[in-house]
User: Fold Small ribosomal subunit protein uS15 from Sulfurimonas denitrificans.
Amino acid sequence: MALDSAKKQEIVTKFGRGENDTGSSEVQIALLTKRISDLTEHLKVFKKDHASRLGLLKLVGQRRRLMRYFKRKDKDAYLKLVAELGIRDNI
Assistant:
């Protein structure tokens, strides 16, 4: 399920560097994390939805690549973001 614009704007203002900052790594990782958690909840109910499972795996891979890049560029901000989002630092 896609994020509605209000929820997306809330995430952008919380994690972005500016008001309309949608391209920074922090915002992209936060948006992907929200989409991943929504899809995970969906798959708990619909266990045989393999198309959504494939989409979930693609999102996780995309987030992993972004996190690897962000960790390499700004380690302190990366650790803060990981703690704030409540995700593991296994990259």
Observations:
- The domain at 5-85 is CATH 1.10.287.10 (Helix Hairpins).
- The chain has one domain: 5-85.
- The mean pLDDT is 93.
- Helices lie at 5-15, 25-45, 50-73, 75-85.
